[in-house]
């Protein structure tokens, strides 16, 4: 058996080599890079592994690069980030190309997380559109704008699965589910790279943060991660792998540890898994000073951790300069080999080659492009459309929404006219001055016929200490000069004269994002009080929750007649919200992360296992898996979201009852638009493995289709299931489906109840 394995491995290796040797483009690249490397000194090779930031963008650590100009000229910089605009980037590139000995061009990177200048909704919001073409299109537009401004290497997508909304960075990802997360990661990579890195309007994508960063204990940023390999492979790794499979040119290592070794020095993660198992052939960049941070993790001094990182398979050191300052010494002391440095250097040079930089190092610095490519009308309308599609309607009693464009509307709340908070976290290249506020959006969409009265009503929060922490990148929580009582009084006066109240509440943009963990994810007390008082007026109340994370808003849901989850929706946020509330767009978003009832339920997600003592029904039972003080169910489940119309599901069927391992089974269901509006629905398919050798989740998303139905219309939606959809990772990390019965559920959210059983032979 062992012998057979060795023979198979040898055949595989030979096949791999043959492939390499026969690919003429790869051969040419190898030759070019080898020739270049033959001219390089060891210092110049190490220089290629150094990524600097002169401090133009958002700083996410305490360290900034110094003497950048001198280092570039000395051949000590491989890439740079935080420099924007064709003039500045050209100037910097010239230092490398014209003033360093070998003239090797630099990579220019940035965090283009949800749009460049045309800011789209937060990634968590984008994912709620469940529209992969749309997401891909936003990434294409982001690449067009960024490359017009001299940036061609993007630190996105963030593929971290997150099941803990206390973690502020849940805003930057696609939520809790590996299947959906994989599709989104893939769409973003394809959007940025367009399968052609050599074009001057596409950018190299970096999948981050490898790996498991979203599982930081207690949601506290940068915290320890420790999980079984089964959970890793089945639940957390698929989106990174999907991004790698989609061709992402770069991978960023994460801050946290994985199996007790920090990701940036984890050879199992960065080499055995990423390269050997997944076949990744791009380069790995560290996160911001994450190599140095291994000192604090307890892995040794700077020289030790830098050597550890290089040997683990990390190629480029972001900002920390551990590589720059210690690798030569480690080489001289025999702690690393020449080959370790050569391999990393080769990978960085290959990335530059693939981007076409050796052909023309200035190809991305065309001063005429920004005007033609950035913030053009077409991009702004895409931002408006995307924002509308990212919003999720969570409640709509008595069809209060859509609002009429008439009568008097009280628009109240600290986020109703707050330009600084519209873009959302991680929009360093956006400009909040360009953002449309909710008040402006209301006036644009309904101002001619409706009387819109605004009052702030409350501060985002009244605590100056909290405001100070949140306002690190500029004022986001602005505490009014007026007393809370005076603001409330004004709001109640406005509300008193109105036919309907729209309260726009939630989080300031920097209450989520990096280093923005909250242990209490409810509305700040100032806003809770406002909502309570507004509810007491007895007027119809619409609550709009603007946030970067699922929040515990049960009280507000009870107060509201209608509630819309808006997220931070980007540069066109105000217009898009008005489009939705006034019915110009019928909402179709569905949650991609569960909303808990309270923080005690966290981590909370739909794909739970049954346990040996599952609760039957929803009442507390002694000696069952439940809580004394809250039910097990979430406030809103994964996949949930309403429309102004309603959809009915019927007649689920499969084309056969049994399926072979290499077969396909087709599931179909009839969906009818039974309401009074045309609308879109995300038809979701979940599968439960009834008996397996590893405790199976109660259901897993395995397919979805977004459809449009005119009112009264019925359609049949079909899904094809193969054994791959039924497969999972086993304790030995083999991936296959086990024969037996499976239940398939189809419906409009993760509680879908229409079901059918089939058997895998
Ligand atoms: C973040 C990364 C980001 C990097 C560069 C870090 O703090 O974790 O997501 O790409 O900074 O800005």
UniProtKB/TrEMBL annotation:
GO cellular component terms listed in the entry, alphabetical order: periplasmic space
UniProt keyword Signal, yes or no: yes
GO biological process, one term: carbohydrate metabolic process
Enzyme Commission code: 3.2.1.21
Main location: periplasm
Entry keyword set: Carbohydrate metabolism, Glycosidase, Hydrolase, Periplasm, Signal
Highest taxon of the lineage: Bacteria
Domain annotation Fibronectin type III-like: ranges: 681-750
Chain segments annotated as transmembrane: none
Family membership noted in the UniProt record: Belongs to the glycosyl hydrolase 3 family.
NCBIfam families reported in the protein's UniProt record: PRK15098.1 (NF011678)
Protein name according to UniProt: Periplasmic beta-glucosidase
């Amino acid at each position: 058996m062992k012998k057979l394995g060795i023979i198979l491995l040898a055949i595989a290796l030979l096949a791999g080599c043959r492939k390499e040797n026969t690919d003429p483009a790869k051969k040419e690249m190898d030759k070019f890079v080898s020739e270049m490397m033959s001219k390089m000194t060891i210092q110049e090779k190490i220089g290629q592994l150094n990524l600097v930031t002169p401090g133009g963008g958002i700083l996410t650590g305490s360290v900034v690069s110094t003497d950048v100009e001198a280092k570039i000229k000395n051949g000590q910089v491989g890439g740079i980030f935080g420099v924007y605009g064709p003039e500045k980037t050209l100037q910097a590139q010239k230092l490398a190309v014209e003033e360093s000995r070998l003239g090797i061009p630099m990579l220019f990177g940035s965090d283009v997380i949800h749009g460049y200048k045309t800011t789209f909704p937060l990634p968590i919001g984008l994912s709620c559109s469940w529209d992969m073409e749309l997401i891909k299109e936003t990434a294409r537009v982001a690449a067009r704008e960024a490359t017009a401004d001299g940036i061609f290497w993007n630190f996105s997508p963030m593929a971290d699965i997150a099941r803990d909304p206390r973690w502020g960075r849940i805003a930057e990802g696609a939520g809790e589910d590996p299947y959906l997360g994989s599709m989104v990661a893939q769409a973003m990579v394809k959007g940025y790279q367009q399968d052609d890195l050599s074009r001057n309007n596409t950018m190299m994508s970096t999948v981050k943060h490898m790996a498991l960063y979203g599982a930081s204990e207690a949601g506290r940023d940068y915290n320890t991660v420790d999980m079984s390999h089964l959970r890793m492979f089945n639940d957390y790794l698929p989106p990174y792998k999907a991004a790698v499979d989609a061709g992402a040119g770069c991978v960023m290592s994460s801050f946290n540890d994985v199996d007790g070794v920090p990701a940036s020095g984890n050879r199992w993660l960065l080499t055995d898994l990423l390269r050997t198992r997944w076949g990744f052939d791009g380069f790995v960049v560290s996160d911001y000073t994450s190599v140095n941070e291994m000192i604090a993790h307890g892995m040794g001094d700077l020289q030790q951790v830098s050597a550890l990182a290089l040997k683990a398979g990390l190629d480029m050191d972001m900002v920390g300069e551990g590589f720059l300052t210690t690798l030569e010494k480690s080489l001289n002391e025999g702690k690393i080999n020449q080959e370790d440095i050569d391999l990393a250097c080769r990978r960085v040079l290959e990335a530059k080659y693939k981007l076409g930089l050796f052909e023309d190092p200035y190809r991305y610095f065309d001063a005429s492009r920004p005007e033609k490519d950035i913030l053009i009308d077409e991009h702004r309308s895409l931002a408006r459309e995307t924002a509308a599609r990212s919003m999720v309607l969570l409640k709509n009693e008595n069809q209060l929404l859509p609002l009429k464009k008439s009568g008097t509307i009280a628009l109240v709340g600290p986020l109703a006219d707050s330009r600084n908070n519209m873009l959302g976290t991680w929009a360093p290249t956006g400009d909040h001055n360009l953002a449309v506020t909710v008040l402006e959006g209301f006036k644009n969409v309904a101002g001619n016929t409706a009387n819109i009265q605004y009052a702030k009503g409350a501060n985002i929060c009244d605590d100056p200490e909290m405001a100070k922490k949140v306002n690190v990148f500029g004022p986001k929580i602005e505490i009014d000069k007026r007393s809370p009582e005076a603001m409330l009084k004004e709001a109640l006066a406005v509300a008193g004269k109105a036919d309907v109240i729209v309260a726009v509440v939630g989080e300031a943009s920097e209450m989520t994002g990096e280093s923005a963990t909250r242990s209490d994810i409810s509305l700040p007390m100032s806003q809770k009080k406002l909502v309570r008082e507004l509810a007491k007026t007895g007027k119809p109340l619409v609550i709009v929750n603007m946030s970067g994370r699922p929040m515990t808003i049960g009280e507000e849901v009870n107060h509201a007649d209608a509630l819309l989850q808006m997220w931070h929706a980007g540069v066109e946020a105000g217009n898009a919200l008005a489009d939705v509330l006034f019915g110009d767009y019928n909402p179709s978003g569905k949650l991609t992360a569960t909303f808990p009832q309270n923080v005690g339920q966290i981590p909370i997600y739909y794909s739970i296992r049954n346990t040996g003592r599952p609760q039957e029904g929803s009442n507390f039972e002694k000696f069952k898996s439940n809580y004394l003080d809250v039910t097990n169910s979430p406030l809103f489940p994964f996949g949930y979201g309403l429309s102004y119309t309603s959809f009915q599901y019927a007649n689920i069927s499969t084309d056969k009852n049994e399926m072979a391992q290499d077969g396909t089974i087709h599931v179909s269901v009839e969906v009818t638009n039974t309401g009074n509006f045309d609308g879109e629905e995300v038809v979701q398919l979940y599968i439960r493995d009834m008996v397996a050798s590893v405790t199976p989740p109660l259901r897993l998303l395995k397919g979805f289709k977004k459809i449009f139905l005119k009112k009264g219309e019925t359609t049949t939606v079909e899904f094809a299931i193969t054994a791959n959809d039924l497969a999972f990772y086993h304790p030995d990390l083999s991936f296959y489906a086990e024969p037996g019965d499976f239940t398939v559920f189809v419906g409009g959210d993760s509680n879908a109840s229409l079901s059918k059983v089939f058997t895998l032979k």
